[in-house]
Amino acid sequence: MKATSPANVAIYRWPLVLIITIIMLFVTYTAIRAMSEAYFSDGFPEALAIKVELLPLIFPIHMVAGGLSLLLVPATIYLRRTRFHKFFGRIAAADILVAGITAPFVAWAVPVTIISAAGFTAQSVAWMGLLAAGIWNIRNGRVKAHQTCMLLMAAVTSGALFFRIFLALWARFGDHHYFNDFYALNAWIAWSIPLVAVLVFHRLRERTNSPA
Ligand code: HEM
User: What domain range is 194 assigned to?
Assistant: First the structure.
């Protein structure tokens, strides 16, 4: 049987489909949880409960818009090359603007540490900056540059997931004395690691695909 025979392709495809399904279920769960926390934030730790009290409108808006972005960004990428891409893209862009603009207000309201607040602010600037660059490129007909910017923007979005994964791992295995240090580090690495990983992967793929 040839390596590229339909049977072989099906065997290789199943694990990939399974992994993507698990990731999408996790993303959907996080998005729904984020949006519901806007209404049910009673279980929040002290540091976040204060923010809800200080920003009773802005913080819930951030949570709902942030949660929605986790669904809208992958949906828009999935729908590329269909007539729905533009429609979803516009809604996603508006939603990211809302989540991104509200983020620094939430970050600087009684911050856990100044370094964590700076990390969240840098993330929102990178997020909206990549979105703006993506829109500017497509408006000027540069499809490839648009794709690259949006892939990088999606990587920054995934920071919201990695932040929670790293936090859960820390809660399980970390030393609670150093929580503030870890929190500050997490606010930077949760989005910059996926951003750099996607950038490196993208460059390598471009180099492999470009003619010698
Ligand atoms: C990508 C740019 C984002 C930035 C810069 C950002 C920033 C922040 C900040 C600063 C806080 C308060 C935590 C603190 O100050 O210690 C926060 C909390 C929160 N954010 Fe975002 N956020 C972003 C994206 C998202 C996304 C995509 C979601 C969707 C899950 C989201 C959902 C939430 C929720 C639910 C909270 C409440 C606390 C929690 O559940 O951890 N945010 N965000």
Answer: 6-209
